[in-house]
Design brief:
alpha/beta; 7 helices; two-stranded antiparallel sheet; 239 residues
Length: 239
């Protein structure tokens, strides 16, 4: 990739569906094979050559800061930004747009877990179809009613998007992991009113201009006890 790589990790959620586990542990620090989700993403980002990561905090922020304080020294810079009130996925990206400083950006939900690495997604973004504003990771789900479901054409460009509908027309789901370049940040900043939620306010305005990359490795939203149990079965232990 010609530009440096930077990432925004969304780690501020309350994790209500994982209670009682998350009554005393932020969801981003829930472990899989002993490794917190946030640590897993930091490891994967460093392996992908990411130069800097920004992590938003809110719920049990002191625990997140303590975890980061124990992290081994690394060439990848890690910063945090506290949100006294949650801004939403697009809202947080907009509020911190200067962090990207001309870099290729990643927007990642730290409570998801991904098998494999980020290389295929980044390559897909580099070779995306002409006119695509950003690239979206997609995966096959057995619970399509709880996901945003996409349809794509032969180039992998998103042609339709159905956010958590009762009768979804497929099982190819939005992984809520996005890659973008500076023109997309400029587009986001030009939207009026400024968007708060990425799925409901940004994606529908760019149908036909979103590249997709379907992962063939496990990809899970660690939002429920069942999903956490599945992650322990499907994802390999930390190398």
């Amino acid at each position: 990739m010609s530009r440096p790589l930077r990432a925004l990790l969304l780690a501020a959620g309350l994790g209500t569906r994982l209670r009682p586990l998350t009554l005393h542990t932020p969801k981003c620090l829930v472990p899989i094979h002993g490794e917190p989700l946030l640590g897993r993403w930091l490891r994967q980002l460093e392996a992908a050559g990411c130069e800097a990561v920004l992590i938003n905090t809110h719920y049990l922020a002191d625990q997140v800061l303590a975890f980061l304080g124990e992290r081994s020294a690394s060439a990848m810079a890690v910063e945090t930004v506290h949100e006294p009130e949650l801004l939403g996925t697009a809202g947080t990206l907009l509020a911190n747009r200067d962090f990207f400083n001309g870099a290729t950006g990643l927007l990642i939900h730290a409570d998801n877990a991904m098998g494999g690495d980020l290389g295929g997604l980044l390559d897909a973004h580099s070779s995306r179809a002409r006119g695509c504003a950003f690239t979206m990771l997609t995966f096959r789900t057995d619970q399509p009613r709880s996901c945003g479901i996409v349809a794509t054409d032969g180039r992998g460009v998103v042609t339709a998007f159905h956010e958590k509908v009762e009768d979804p027309p497929g099982n190819l789901a939005n992984g809520a992991l996005y890659v973008f370049d500076p023109p997309f940040i400029a587009h986001l900043a030009s939207m009026s009113p400024p968007p708060s939620d990425f799925s409901t306010e940004v994606i529908p305005t760019l149908i036909g201009r979103i590249q997709s990359w379907p992962t063939d490795r496990p990809y899970l939203d660690i939002g429920t006890p069942a999903a956490l149990a599945a992650a322990h079965q499907l994802l390999p232990p930390t190398p």
